[in-house]
Amino acid sequence: MKPCRPSRSRLALYLVIHYIRWMGSRAMTEPAFFILTALVDAPRHGYGIVADVAELSRGRVQLKIGSLYGALDRLVGDGLVELDREEAWQGRLRRYYRLTERGRDALAAEAQRLAANARLASTRLSGRRNPITGPAPS
Amino acid sequence: MSRLEERYRLVLRLLPAAYRQQWEDDMVAAFLDSMDNDDPETAAYAADYGRPSLAEVASIVSLAVRLRLGGPDAPARSYAWGQAVRLATLMAALTHAVMVTASVAVALWLSGKIAWLPAPAPAWALTPSGSIWHTAWNLAGYAWLPAYIALVLGHRRVAQAVALLAIVPPAVTTAVEQAATDVPLSVTPWALRLTDVVLVLAMAVFHRDAPPVPRRPWLLAIPIGILLVPLPLFAIQATSQAPRLLDWPGLSCAIVAAAIAVHLAGRTPRQPARTLPWSLALTLLAATTLALRIVTLPDYIDQAQRTTLVTIAATEVIAVLTMALPLARRAIRALRRLPPIPADAQWPTTRTE
């Protein structure tokens, strides 16, 4: 009797499933979230995104140029952001980026996920019994 | 082009050519925008004398590491190099973890804490230090074990921070000893600390795009490693004088030569691309151990047994070269067979979510 060995196709299927689960388990990073948010109302160029992200996050997320383009090349590759136009300004060529429909959907989904998490934490906190004053008023 | 722009473009040369072709001008424009100033005099001064800040340079270095030593989505050559550096880092950290774990067991035995084992010879017995701080300071080296486990479990930053705990106290002790006492100046401790610092920096290759480390084999490697290296070494040292002439660089040479021999014996000749990351990783480790062996040779000059020690060191160098040169040749050949990255190609990107 031949020993039972997993077939190559089954092994490949296992690897593919494992890979997809690993990729799917990764949440959107905070810089990527803020970059997409910065592009919601209007297309922006590189430094415009940096400035808007700093403002949106109240100075907490200060993107360096390497970090911005590290995130931006992924967003463009994923089809969440695309080139809007190029403009010459003070002898420099500025590229403006805009949010795609897919990017808008991805941002909306991430915002819903974060809001659901925040609601969950708030609900737990408001229902928590205070050792001195008793349960929080509903 | 201003001097500031020249300096920034010089930093950007760290990035792969294909990536620069696509993003360089845009990055330069964004960087120069960020350095703009309303005051023309300040702006002119910055254009001539300004430099990219350390944080800006660090962000480019980090991006370069992610692109050049990439994950599964990167071009084949970047992925091969990325896997090679990841494997080399894991093997180096594993060696530290194995040696410190074994040394904890040996120290416990020598200090009489393991009652069920036969008592050590009186000449071997350890007397515990009176100061708890002194003990804690000496125990810092054992941080390699949690650092390795953190790395395998995917907590790269924790691993780097914990590994620093293992590096800094011995470095301070060496500096104080060499500055304040009559201990002769020695290259070895500094060369070892330097390789440890390189190891901590190399942990950066376990970035977001890197595939997760297979936990079971790398965790199982700790007990297997203890059985294979420190345990037999200690047993031989306890019964013979000869292995005491083997210092850490020498032991590293022996381990790397043995690992390459096993790799060459077990590799599948028809699938060189599959074993390429291991071949590259072992070549990197061989180069590091050779460098470590050679730069620590001057420490033998003051030793009474210097002729014997230099002969042993030469044997170690020859052993590593004999193993590493054919391996490096095969690895380079296999690397050349991988498709190159065309300079005008769009750089492959990875998922955001």
Highlighted features:
heterodimer, A: alpha+beta, Arc Repressor Mutant, subunit A, 3-stranded antiparallel sheet, two-stranded antiparallel ribbon, 5 helices, 5 strands, 17% strand, elongated, disordered N terminus, B: 353 residues, mainly alpha, 14 helices, 69% helix, 0% strand
General shape of chain B: globular
Count of all domains of chain B: 3
Record field, number of beta strands of chain B: 0
Q: Any idea what the shape of chain A is? A: elongated
* Percent helix of chain A: 55-70%
Oligomer state equals heterodimer
State the largest interface. Answer: A-B, 34 and 33 residues
* Overall tally of domains of chain A: 1
What series of H and E elements makes up the topology of chain B?
A: HHHHHHHHHHHHHH
What's the story with the biggest beta sheet of chain A? 3 strands, antiparallel
Largest sheet of chain B: none
Stretches with pLDDT under 50, minimum 5 residues of chain B: none
The gyration radius over C-alpha positions of chain A equals 22 Å
CATH homologous superfamily label of chain A? Winged helix-like DNA-binding domain superfamily/Winged helix DNA-binding domain
In which range does the helix fraction of chain B lie? 55-70%
What's the mean pLDDT score of chain B?
Answer: 83
Given helix and strand content, the structural type of chain A is: alpha+beta
- Tally of contiguous helical segments of chain A: 5
Q: Rg of chain B to the nearest angstrom?
A: 24 Å
Distance between the termini of chain A: 69 Å
State mean pLDDT of chain A (0 to 100 scale).
80
Structure overview:
The complex is a heterodimer of chains A (138) and B (353). With 138 residues, chain A is an alpha+beta fold. Chain A has one domain: Winged helix-like DNA-binding domain superfamily/Winged helix DNA-binding domain (Arc Repressor Mutant, subunit A, Orthogonal Bundle). Helices cover 55% and strands 17% of the residues of chain A. Chain A is built from five helices and five strands. Chain A has helices at 8-24, 30-38, 46-56, 65-77, 101-126, and strands spanning 44-45, 81-89, 92-99, 129-130, 134-135. Chain A has a three-stranded antiparallel β-sheet with strand order 1-3-2. In chain A, helix 2 crosses helix 3. Chain B is mostly helical and 353 residues long. Chain B has three domains: 3-65, no CATH class; 72-236, no CATH class; 240-339. Chain B has 14 helices and no strands. In chain B, helix 5 (76-110) packs across helix 10 (215-228). The longest helix of chain B is centred in the first third of the chain and has 35 residues, at 76-110. Chain B is globular and about 80 Å long. The model of chain B has no long low-confidence stretch (mean pLDDT 83). Classes of the chains: A alpha+beta (138), B mainly alpha (353).
